[in-house]
Design goal:
- The chain is an alpha+beta fold.
- The protein is built from 17 helices and twelve strands.
- The chain folds into three domains: about 170 residues, 2-Layer Sandwich (Beta-Lactamase); about 100 residues, PAS domain (Beta-Lactamase, 2-Layer Sandwich), CATH 3.30.450.20; about 90 residues, Orthogonal Bundle (Arc Repressor Mutant, subunit A).
Amino acid sequence: MDAPFCGPCLGATGAMDEQFLDSLYEAAVVPELWPQVLRRFQEIARGAGAVLVAVTPNSNRWISSSPEFDQVVSTHFNRFPGNERTRRLLERRHAGFLRDIDILSDAEMASEPVYRDFLLPQGLGIGVATSIASPTGEAFILHAEREREEGHVDDRLIARFDRMRPHLARAMLLSSRLEFERAQGAARALEAIGLPAAILDREGRALALNPRFEALIPTVAVDRPSRLGLIDTAADGLLAAALQARGQIASATVRSIPVARRESQPPLILHLTPIRGAAHDIFSRAASILVVTPVVVKDVPTADVVQGLFDLTPAEARLAALIAAGHRPREAAAALGVMEETARSTLKRVMAKTGLHRQADLIGLLRGAGVTSGPPGPGERMP
């Protein structure tokens, strides 16, 4: 049962805490407000910064109170993965807040690398934190870091934070649930307009499939335990490469993936779209949406259609449309008023973004005739 808050009993402190709890539940529904909540938590803790971390066996994801403190958090986890500070906090499974001195002795801090080599030289290493287990298997950590000159958090403030903790847990878990439901809602909306879609986690595992995508299994896709796969070997390799960065989809070279025609199935283009926005990386296991677009055009598509199918610049899309119309690079260059070498360089970028190896495959794909898999054979060359 939640501990009650009594504004009249606690005076200004009680009013401040009630305002903080109001902001918590508001952030649970509007994720963009979580940094503001963290800044308020930092102020109450008289901290140098605050952070909310989602911890899994394979990764740590976080959102912090400021860009400056985000650098501290990044160094903490990237330089010192598996550090004792985090490990012991999670291991305690304490239903309340703990200080550094509650989980490590002064002698242990002096020898532990994250303290000795990073926190203590910066005048940090005095924090207060709690961990909250999630039904999905993740653990959320809410942490405020203090400067050592402030001294350790006293027992009265710990008790104050402990009264807030049930509300913190409820808001975090509500945020997590709502984020996943938003992603599922996107998949359902795509179903309504006739597009197959899959919600993927950071490793590429399928979290949700709409009925149209389910119909593509096992002829086009296969739901592997490790990640969602594609039957087409070349396309599957491109999907694996795009997912390799574990959630950093924006940095992938190929995000629009062509799938060759198979028997009665038309050529397909798969679009891997990252799920972005404040707190998405924290509260939702969903990292991307995979949308399938059948290529059924029989006429040559216009440049704006080509640009919509792939992640092309306007110049790349105009060139691709001319190539699809049957123009050679030299002729396309003349039509666009650019040097032939410029057109060939642009065409190479188009081929790289589409994941194709042959100019004929680009023409076939855009005309709905299909593509062949694999790199160019003997005697064939890139543009």
